[in-house]
Amino acid sequence: MAENPTRSIFITGLKNAHALEKEALGIMNRQIDRLEQYPEMADRLRQHVGETEEQIKRLDSVLMEMGESASAFKDAVLSMGGNMAALGHAAAGDEILKNTYANQAFENFEIASYRSLIVMAEAGSFTSARPLLEMTLREEEAMAAWVAESIPTVTRRFLQLKEAGEQASH
Ligand SMILES: [Fe+2]
Fold first, then answer.
1. What residues sit around ligand 1, an ion, with C-beta below 5 angstroms?
2. 33, 38, 60, 85: which has the fewest Cβ within 10 Å?
3. CATH class held by domain 5-168
């Protein structure tokens, strides 16, 4: 029997989302260590790390249900996140701003992929997957909204710290 295309596209999408979330964990954990001047951002990222760990478990359980065991696949290395959120810019001094832009982009990439996965789950009648994907989508939307709202505050704080640092050095 030939493989059902919707099913195989869905499974590939789930694996890609799994790799994306693993990458998100790495990116967020690297940022959290360097956010002592931005405690609200650090707290929200810590919360989202917890949510992301649950999202990975949800993807594992959907993949299991689709007959794909978690150990049977390797997370693909995604060039998108790695390039977009290249975080080796500590010396530039504005990494907080670049990271905030990257987080906004990353969360929106996740939102797009979960919206698409939900449509696939519906099209293929993979009914038990849908509520789990919707739960994750709501968390990603909340995170994207929080990041978007934080941009003015983070930018003002960054300017203040730079002004204060400039004065201290004279
Ligand atoms: Fe996320």
1. 110, 140
2. 33
3. mainly alpha
